[in-house]
Amino acid sequence: MRARIHITLKDGVLDPQGKAVGQALAALGFAGLGEVRQGKVIDIDLAETDSGRARESLEAMCERLLANTVIEDYEITLAE
Amino acid sequence: MIAPEIVAEHGLSEDEYARILDILGREPNPVELGIVSAMWSEHCSYKSSRAWLATLPTEAPWVICGPGENAGVVDIGDGRAAVFKIESHNHPSFIEPYQGAATGVGGILRDVFTMGARPVALMNALRFGSPDHPRTRHLVAGVVSGIGGYGNCIGIPTVGGETGFDSAYDGNILVNAMAVGIADADRIFYARASGVGNPVVYVGSKTGRDGIHGATMASATFDAGAEARRPTVQVGDPFTEKLLLEACLELMATDAIVAIQDMGAAGLTSSALEMAAKGGVGIALDLDRVPVREAGMDAYEIMLSESQERMLMVLRPDSEEPAARVFRKWGLDFAVIGRLTDTGRVALAHGGESVADIPVDPLVAAAPRYRRPYVETEPPAMPPLPATGVAPLDALERLIAGPELASRRWIWEQYDHMVMGDTVARPGGDAAVIRIHGSARGIALTVDCTPRYCAADPRAGGRQAVAEAWRNLVAAGARPLAVTDNLNFGDPQRPGIMGQLVGCIEGIGEACRALDFPVVSGNVSLYNETGGRAILPTPVIGGLGLIDDLDRRASIAFAAPGQDIVAIGATAGHLGQSLLLRDVLASPGGPPPPVDLGIERRNGLFVRDRIARGAVSVCHDVSDGGLLVALAEMALASGIGAEIVPPDGVDALAWLFGEDQGRYLVALPAAAGLVERAAAAGVPAAVIGRTAGAALTVSGHGHISLASLKQAHEAWFPRFMAGR
Question: What's the rounded Cα separation, in Å, for the pair B487 and B466?
Fold first, then answer.
């Protein structure tokens, strides 16, 4: 089973990297941009076939390592 | 109608709330309540400590600006001034160690450049829980990385500091950051607003929903999702701070600025109110003009956001355009958000409506000041020493390989301590030394505190913290000028804790007076406790000194073999509260070493004079761990060993490991002249041995090779951080 995890800063947390991307886009002439926010994607292959147990295990991974839950949110998507 | 629980959530007592009703003559609205609660918070008003802080000496002929401004300012000659301050970021660093520590650095830097100084050095004082505590390693890694991340990115060297471990900090770590800047002595900028009609300008980053103060506003003005939206941790952006620093300094070179204040704790609220209060003027702000990061922020959020990298300024009339050009050039927000008024009130408008209108002076004047009841700590009696067969060199090896004294290389190697090119003495010595750019003179910096002394006897501990900072500066060859203090304590509403605070402040005051070492800035951090368990009293002293000639200074490394080693100051062998008792003999206790300030001063002035005259260039102060530890540190710093001979008829352990104060070790080619001069000055000085070889030898007690000592000294930190 394959999982994709999106990790993003929580709403309201300053995102200096997103801000820098926004400024760079504006400098290249892309007009009409509002706030730019960025995050990361982590793909994980799992031996687990039960989606409930897979999700449980992925949540533990996010809580303990993948996301800094003080300032970040995560979202887990499972694929076949 | 404001519910009592909302008032309580804002940290206001019933009595304090009654006072607000009295001053306003009506109920505050939620925005006003938020503003007043921030103003009257312990953090902004120093309500528990102010009466005691007022007893500290703050003046000297070289002090340009004492406490009360963003940072302290001292004259360092040649028309220049040093601007410096220390500040805590304890709680945020416990929640999110990287960002907490990073924004602590960012905040203290703003305090310094707000006053017109270019920051030239950073220091930090850190306290973590027991190395065995499961969270400690994570916190150390995050805090050190956060300090390095901010300091390295903005390009200001982190030149030194101190780090301690104790289980008393398991639930409350301490992260105290100190910054030092250099300014022209006649171009210092203050926060005092003046000139009715002058524009009030917001510069820097946009305002977001960061760190809006602890109080949860469950009132009807906020929707149910408000809490989830509001992060309690601020994220720092050192690259924006670099732009803000350069933009501010560029504008400061013109005469556009009347007053300037950074937005730190309680953000726009505290900066606007402080500027108005100091200038005795009113201020009218239109919050619709505040640059915001997110749509839909309300007045409460805008006023109490703690978004980083922001400043508030009052400009002279007609300088708006040139100032705006400077900030736009640096890619920063610039917005005129209001004017000074003659009403003496802070009036806020948002969405075309008045959202707050409160008098400044009455609220500042009525800010609570408490003389909280306190109980003095009874200093413990000296316990009987355990009968022990511990060999001195085994004890040394254990101490120097343990968490308290192990090399901090793992920490300072993560900091850029050389950027800017003026670092003369790197981390690891008694004091860091920074060249005053383009001159042959330097400033020396140190941070010191021995919490176990303060816990046993707060007054003696307060004296010792100041004396050790002073001594570290002297040992580097500097003339100590002034102090910034960071007072970290538990809950002051507990009389025992309040007694620690009072005792430490009294001790600090006595020492600062006796050593001509005034306090020019500082910070108080209270309520550092979890589940009724308080931290050790930790009054960190940041000291700054001046070196008139960088060719005449001292460092701790031995210079050559075959030199005489002289102990200056009397060794009585005081073992109470020593590391030997606590960490080797497992018998902690007793009173801390007494600090005789007259002797401290006499010994220190003698040493400094010898260094300033070029007679001594190798010097180390004797502190934690005593004489043998100091000797080992000098040997390890140089790779040159030493042979020493304990005097006849003394207890070797007490002589080698006692922590008597007012002592220095110096090494020089021939000691006779020094010893003679010391005798004439009434300063005890005794030749205890010579530098030699590649081992440390204690006559009658064997020897240990520097290679194994170094291995022991360097191994602990990397091993701890690797989880082994």
Answer: 12
